[in-house]
Amino acid sequence: MADESKSKGKILVVDDSADIRLLLILKLKKVGYEVLAASNGMEALEMVGENKDIKLIILDVMMPVMNGIQTMKLLLNRIEKNQTSTDEGETEEEAEEPISKDVPEAENLPLLKVVFCTAKQDPRQIELALQAGADDYITKPIDETIMVQKINRLMGQNENQMFAILRTQLEITIEEYPKEKPALMTEVSEVSCKFECGYHIPDATVVTIHSPKLEGYFKRPVLLKGAVVFQEKKGPDLFETDIFFKGLTEDDRKELRSVTTTKRELKEEEEEEEEGEEGEKEEE
Predict the structure, then answer these.
(1) CA distance linking residue 171 with residue 210, whole number of Å
(2) Nearest CA-CA partner of 41 in 20, 56, 63, 19
């Protein structure tokens, strides 16, 4: 068992495959989490009821006894009911309402994040899982780097926060999507960046970013290539996308650091000029 004093938090892995459970347990323990495991939804509900310090649950969608979506809905419904009764107080009728003996009582269920584990070739499963209330998802076969980044973010342990983040408003192009309109980079660090685009990019997709403005600050060419870790839909044609850089050398990171640590914000020249003019008018 992980040393609780050094643990980043407790996670429950729920999957009917012993191999998948073992893989997730070993990987998550290696990066500092305490990990419990269950082979089906019923076991998961019991374990969550017995362990109030579980912060996140990784649920396989296709499981015997109770599938992942059924497990999550029951779990979230009972947590919500518990929070409501705690905040507002139960009525006599609610207090007398019988509780199923097959699942733990609501008062034993903690607030937690839910991540689904789905088959990559079935996008409908992903959509259903997110609509049902999941916070995020990982796909099989599991990309360990992507998984850890997702878990760190949801657990509030995002290592990217260790690095200076530069807020930006820069037009960028994605080499792998030449027919799409330019995207907008909103922030960048020496390990990651975030941008908004009008199209969906699947998790783990490797993309190459070009920004004439940003590249103008580098003393030599830097290849901004990275894998998609998160993509959240913000509107009908707007996706916020997080990229974790891959293959950067220390010299590459040094060039990025020279920009992210010396500037508070970086915008296209046109926007900077407009803001400068507005500032001059206000002074007059």
Answers:
(1) 9
(2) 63
Name the stretches of the chain with pLDDT < 50.
1-4, 83, 86, 90-101, 103-108, 270, 272, 274-275
What pTM does this model have? 0.57
Asked, for residue 4, whether it belongs to a domain, the answer is no
First to last CA, the chain: 67
Report the CATH number at residue 121.
3.40.50.2300
- Backbone phi and psi for residue 197, each to the nearest 5 degrees, phi listed first: -140, 170
SS (H, E, C) 64-86: CCCCHHHHHHHHHHHHHHHHHHH
Within 13 A of 159's CA, how many CA atoms are on the CB side?
Answer: 11
Spell out a b/e string for 95-133, using b for 16 or more CB atoms within 10 Å of the CB, else e.
eeeeeeeebbebebbeebbbbbbbebeeeebbebbeebe
CA distances from 8 to 19, 22, 30, 33, 53 (A): 24, 19, 11, 5, 12
* Placement of tokens 């060419």 in the chain: 221
For 182, the token pair is: 């330019």
